């Protein structure tokens, strides 16, 4: 394991470290900005006073409202990005995103179903969305089960097909019930696009118990995942238990993605984009890719949130829309540059 | 496909061969399936005709209302469903084979989402004109954006598919933004259009999709052997005397025309193009163009029939039901395979 990591780091460890710290600094700056800007702008000088005696001033209230929102945004972005990176490796398909786990469709479906049931109406968005997300992901995994035993090269295709099938059925169910229940549609269309508004400390507290264990487990799985980047038979012959590794990695990705989706809505595009940007920019080792992707995802979500709050004050745009508007051109030009490079060589 | 098939007709590099038994079988089953689905689609539903009335109406002996119902409402609708389904199935098969990606269907690379975005913007800014033109404009915009990513030999490279995914996300964001801008009723109307629909089709649209199929389908069928060779890998295909560039470019253009025609006739219908080729390939063939088209047609027609027969005052758009039917069928196939493999694994042990 150490040998393998050293191969990747080699003599290029300094650029990697500087790249990662660059991302971290950018994230810190954005987090600070996100606390200060919005419908009510605060001055940086005011920040200095925050640790002094608290007077219940208006600014302090604004600040207290923005801090959990920024935290949730960063956590959710990082979680989705890590889940996306893992899923792209497991499916061996650059088009795979956390939505392929069935998490988004499952979360939406259970939200629609449970908010119509009388006993579950009081549960709050998080607890209404989470069970469906986990169930759908488990179902997709079971459907694509067989190949993990036999280690055939067709396994990713099966995974993709299972994910697409389950997502399509659940998505159609959601669309049908939304079309048939207009009052449902009204509250739902904002969650569907992904939104960070109105998040508080309870959301932070419901998020981290899922994220931290999943992240730790994933970090322990990294050596095996790195070998999975080769191909199935090579990984097998190097002593990786495909079944256990893919099952555990799947579980981690599901937990990360389901918790994030339950809080902020389906922002699946974050996972796709940050996985790609990380791989285009960083070396192909999960020790570097996972933190890199997490930073990129957090940056993307925070930046989108800041723009969503400041572009059209006092109205707020939806964060999910801003993420797509920011991330899509980025992905477009990155891949276009890659394809252009392929043409000349 | 085993064993040589004697050639019936030869022109230049094109050879027409006698069909294999499997192909004949598919053709017979397919014809019966389509006829049956057509019958069901015409007879079921609240305003459906009974079989006896149907025959009368077909011979022109029924009452004027039923005559009108058959010739101006139900028949064009069913034919439109068949045509659009075929176009989507074939286009999906070609796109997946050119991009060598099981997800590389027109929906994933953003043609549908582009059409949706175009339609929504059209509804917002030019509500007086037909939405179909907005959808067409959106889809064409997406294709223009995708053009720079086309490989030197006309293949849909991996990066092109990724660019498509980016465009897809952007277009969906545009749609969602538009949905938050408008009032609830209008938003719901938009959402209804976005799932694709076959309500109020007339002979004009049937003629359009028929014309497109008549142009594109024979061309693709002539190319199907070469496209099948591509599955062996590009080097192998070109060393077998396959002109890569012209094959891929022609196939791409024809499949795009099919996808655009489908968008123009039925709006962005989800999932048919993604799922039909997978279902068609279940019997082991690499590229099953005709079978894929057939499955697409059957899927769309049966989904449309279901929208007519389901109870309730509000009709669901057909796109919702294609996703439900196709997705459930795909899941069932995967599940059945799972069971079969498990028993097979247990047997030797």
Automatic annotation (TrEMBL), chain A:
<feature type="transmembrane region" description="Helical">
    <location>
        <begin position="248"/>
        <end position="272"/>
    </location>
</feature>
<feature type="transmembrane region" description="Helical">
    <location>
        <begin position="207"/>
        <end position="228"/>
    </location>
</feature>
<keyword id="KW-0813">Transport</keyword>
<feature type="transmembrane region" description="Helical">
    <location>
        <begin position="98"/>
        <end position="119"/>
    </location>
</feature>
<feature type="transmembrane region" description="Helical">
    <location>
        <begin position="20"/>
        <end position="42"/>
    </location>
</feature>
<feature type="transmembrane region" description="Helical">
    <location>
        <begin position="316"/>
        <end position="335"/>
    </location>
</feature>
<dbReference type="GO" id="GO:0022857">
    <property type="term" value="F:transmembrane transporter activity"/>
</dbReference>
<keyword id="KW-1133">Transmembrane helix</keyword>
<dbReference type="InterPro" id="IPR037294">
    <property type="entry name" value="ABC_BtuC-like"/>
</dbReference>
<keyword id="KW-0472">Membrane</keyword>
<keyword id="KW-1003">Cell membrane</keyword>
<dbReference type="GO" id="GO:0005886">
    <property type="term" value="C:plasma membrane"/>
</dbReference>
<keyword id="KW-0812">Transmembrane</keyword>
<dbReference type="GO" id="GO:0033214">
    <property type="term" value="P:siderophore-iron import into cell"/>
</dbReference>
<dbReference type="InterPro" id="IPR000522">
    <property type="entry name" value="ABC_transptr_permease_BtuC"/>
</dbReference>
<dbReference type="Pfam" id="PF01032">
    <property type="entry name" value="FecCD"/>
</dbReference>
<feature type="transmembrane region" description="Helical">
    <location>
        <begin position="158"/>
        <end position="180"/>
    </location>
</feature>
<feature type="transmembrane region" description="Helical">
    <location>
        <begin position="70"/>
        <end position="91"/>
    </location>
</feature>
<protein>
    <submittedName>
        <fullName>Iron complex transport system permease protein</fullName>
    </submittedName>
</protein>
<feature type="transmembrane region" description="Helical">
    <location>
        <begin position="284"/>
        <end position="304"/>
    </location>
</feature>
<comment type="similarity">
    <text>Belongs to the binding-protein-dependent transport system permease family. FecCD subfamily.</text>
</comment>
<feature type="transmembrane region" description="Helical">
    <location>
        <begin position="125"/>
        <end position="146"/>
    </location>
</feature>
Automatic annotation (TrEMBL), chain B:
<feature type="transmembrane region" description="Helical">
    <location>
        <begin position="78"/>
        <end position="96"/>
    </location>
</feature>
<keyword id="KW-0812">Transmembrane</keyword>
<feature type="transmembrane region" description="Helical">
    <location>
        <begin position="20"/>
        <end position="44"/>
    </location>
</feature>
<keyword id="KW-0472">Membrane</keyword>
<feature type="transmembrane region" description="Helical">
    <location>
        <begin position="288"/>
        <end position="310"/>
    </location>
</feature>
<dbReference type="GO" id="GO:0033214">
    <property type="term" value="P:siderophore-iron import into cell"/>
</dbReference>
<dbReference type="GO" id="GO:0022857">
    <property type="term" value="F:transmembrane transporter activity"/>
</dbReference>
<feature type="transmembrane region" description="Helical">
    <location>
        <begin position="131"/>
        <end position="148"/>
    </location>
</feature>
<feature type="transmembrane region" description="Helical">
    <location>
        <begin position="108"/>
        <end position="126"/>
    </location>
</feature>
<feature type="transmembrane region" description="Helical">
    <location>
        <begin position="249"/>
        <end position="276"/>
    </location>
</feature>
<keyword id="KW-0813">Transport</keyword>
<protein>
    <submittedName>
        <fullName>Iron complex transport system permease protein</fullName>
    </submittedName>
</protein>
<comment type="similarity">
    <text>Belongs to the binding-protein-dependent transport system permease family. FecCD subfamily.</text>
</comment>
<dbReference type="GO" id="GO:0005886">
    <property type="term" value="C:plasma membrane"/>
</dbReference>
<feature type="transmembrane region" description="Helical">
    <location>
        <begin position="203"/>
        <end position="223"/>
    </location>
</feature>
<dbReference type="InterPro" id="IPR037294">
    <property type="entry name" value="ABC_BtuC-like"/>
</dbReference>
<feature type="transmembrane region" description="Helical">
    <location>
        <begin position="160"/>
        <end position="182"/>
    </location>
</feature>
<feature type="transmembrane region" description="Helical">
    <location>
        <begin position="316"/>
        <end position="339"/>
    </location>
</feature>
<dbReference type="InterPro" id="IPR000522">
    <property type="entry name" value="ABC_transptr_permease_BtuC"/>
</dbReference>
<dbReference type="Pfam" id="PF01032">
    <property type="entry name" value="FecCD"/>
</dbReference>
<keyword id="KW-1003">Cell membrane</keyword>
<keyword id="KW-1133">Transmembrane helix</keyword>
């Amino acid at each position: 394991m150490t040998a393998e990591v050293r191969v990747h780091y080699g003599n290029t460890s300094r650029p990697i470290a500087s790249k990662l710290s660059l991302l971290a600094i950018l994230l810190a700056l954005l987090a600070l900005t996100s606390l200060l800007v919005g419908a009510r702008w605060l001055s940086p000088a005011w920040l200095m006073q925050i640790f002094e005696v608290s007077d219940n001033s208006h600014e302090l209230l604004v600040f207290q409202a923005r801090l959990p929102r920024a935290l949730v945004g960063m956590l959710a972005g990082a979680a989705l990005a890590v889940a996306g990176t893992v899923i792209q490796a497991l499916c061996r398909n650059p088009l795979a995103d956390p939505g392929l786990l069935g998490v988004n469709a499952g979360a939406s479906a259970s939200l629609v179903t449970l908010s119509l049931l009388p006993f579950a109406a009081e549960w709050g968005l998080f607890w209404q969305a989470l069970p469906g997300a986990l169930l759908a992901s488990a179902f997709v995994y079971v459907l694509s089960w067989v190949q993990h035993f036999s280690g055939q090269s067709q396994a990713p295709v099966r995974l993709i097909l299972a994910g697409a099938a389950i997502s399509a059925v659940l998505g159609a169910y959601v669309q049908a019930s939304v079309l048939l229940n207009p009052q449902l549609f009204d509250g739902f269309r904002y969650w569907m696009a992904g939104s960070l508004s109105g998040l508080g400390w309870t959301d932070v507290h419901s998020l981290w118990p899922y994220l931290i264990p999943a992240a730790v487990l994933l970090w322990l799985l990294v050596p095996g995942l790195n070998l999975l980047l080769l191909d199935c038979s090579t990984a097998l012959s190097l002593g990786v238990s495909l079944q256990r590794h893919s099952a555990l990695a799947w579980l981690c990705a599901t937990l990360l993605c389901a918790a994030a989706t339950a809080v902020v809505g389906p922002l699946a595009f974050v996972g796709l984009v940050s996985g790609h940007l990380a791989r285009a920019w960083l070396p192909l080792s999960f020790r570097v890719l996972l933190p890199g992707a997490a930073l990129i995802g957090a940056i993307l979500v925070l930046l989108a949130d800041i723009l969503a709050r400041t572009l059209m004050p006092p109205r707020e745009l939806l964060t999910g829309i801003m993420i797509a508007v920011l991330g899509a051109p980025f992905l477009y030009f990155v891949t276009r540059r890659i394809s252009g490079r392929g043409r000349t060589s | 496909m085993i064993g040589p098939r004697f050639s019936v007709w030869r022109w230049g590099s094109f050879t027409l061969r006698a069909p294999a038994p499997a192909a004949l079988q598919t053709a017979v089953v397919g014809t019966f399936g389509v006829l049956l689905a057509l019958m069901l689609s015409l007879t079921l539903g609240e305003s459906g005709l009974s079989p006896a009335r149907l025959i009368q109406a077909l011979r022109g002996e029924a009452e004027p209302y039923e005559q009108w119902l058959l010739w101006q409402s139900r028949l064009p609708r069913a034919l439109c469903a068949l045509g659009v389904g075929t176009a989507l199935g074939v286009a999906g098969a070609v796109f997946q084979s050119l991009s060598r990606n099981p997800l590389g269907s027109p929906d994933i690379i953003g043609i549908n989402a582009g059409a949706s975005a175009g339609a929504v913007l059209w509804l917002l800014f030019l509500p007086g004109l037909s939405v179909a033109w907005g959808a067409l404009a959106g889809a064409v915009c997406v294709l223009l954006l995708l053009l720079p990513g086309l490989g030197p030999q006309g293949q849909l490279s991996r990066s092109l598919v990724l660019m498509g995914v980016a465009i897809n996300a952007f277009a969906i964001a545009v749609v969602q933004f538009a949905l938050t801008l408008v009032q609830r009723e209008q938003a719901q109307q938009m959402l209804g259009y976005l799932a694709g629909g076959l309500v109020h089709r007339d002979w004009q649209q049937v003629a359009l999709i028929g014309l497109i199929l008549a142009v594109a389908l024979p061309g693709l069928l002539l190319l199907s052997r070469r496209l099948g060779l591509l599955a062996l890998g590009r080097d192998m295909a070109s060393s077998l005397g396959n002109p890569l560039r012209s094959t891929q470019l022609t196939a791409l253009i024809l499949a795009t025309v099919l996808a655009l025609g489908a968008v123009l006739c039925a709006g962005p219908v989800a999932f048919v193009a993604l799922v039909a080729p997978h279902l068609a390939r279940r019997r082991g063939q690499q590229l099953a163009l005709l079978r894929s088209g057939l499955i697409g047609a059957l899927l769309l027609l049966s989904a449309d029939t279901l929208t007519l027969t389901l109870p309730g005052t509000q009709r669901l758009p057909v796109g919702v039901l294609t996703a439900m039917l196709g997705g459930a069928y795909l899941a069932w196939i995967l599940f059945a395979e799972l069971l079969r493999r498990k028993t097979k694994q247990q047997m030797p042990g």
